[in-house]
Amino acid sequence: MSQGNVLSQDGKSQDIQKMVRSQDDKGQQQQVATRSQSDKGQNNNIQNVQVETQSQSDKGQIVQAATRSQDGKGKQIQEIFSHLHVRYDMLSTVLSMGQYGLWVRLLVNRLPKIRGGKYLDVATGTGEFALEMAKRTDKDSRTWGIDNSTQMLELARAKKARLQHGARVKFKAMDAMALEFGENYFDGMTAVFGVRNFADLDKGLVQMFRVLKPGSTLLVLEFDTPEPKIIGWLWKNYYHLMLLPMAGLLADREPFEYMYQSIMNFPHKQEFCNRLMEAGFSQASWEAIPPGVVNLYTAIK
Exposed, middle or buried: residue 198 (CB in 10 Å: 0-12, 13-18, 19+)? Predict the structure, then answer.
């Protein structure tokens, strides 16, 4: 074999070795790229898990904050009405411009009644409506009045002890957000100037729906901001120019300020009817009661 042929073969051999090394280098580069992609994937997965965990943590903190807010509002309301319990009946008369007794009797007349029925008055306060309900129903019927103010209930029980029909009423300390009754238990239900003080309005309405029998009626009486300009102007000035200054002389002004703000912030008329429907009621309607400072809401399960 000639020297030229040997050199040619050596050159080919070197070229082949270079190609092999080049392929090895490419393989190593692909391995590095694969590891890099794998690392990126792992990092992305780790980041996604961290983001998801953080998101769940944030949601948990939001829920906890909302719960604390509701608990805080519930305690504030309980303190306000415990402070006002002695003057509550007088306050109801003053706020209603002397119409409170008439409104109570209107509600009792409107609520459908059956013999031996069971009825619940939510946020019963000093028990005025629950006792009037017992008076207007037969001797086999029973009425429950619940409230989260023990001071209010003490006054309600004192009234009950003076009345012959008081034996047909049971008063119990209870939170409207967690009613201690079974489903479909009551034949009728009322709430007089109480639902606007719920720590969680929607939760309270769901609870009321739960314990009411299908086809039965819930009646809610709540203050409103009158729509006719002249009546609205008179009502607001009556509250600010007469009631609040008088409250400052007789008691603490702050609870009366709270009550005014609670009326202003309540979802009135159709908006409240929508909330009742969202809670599960099949029908909900409202009507203004003269002179237009209160609305009567009727909801059917």
Answer: buried
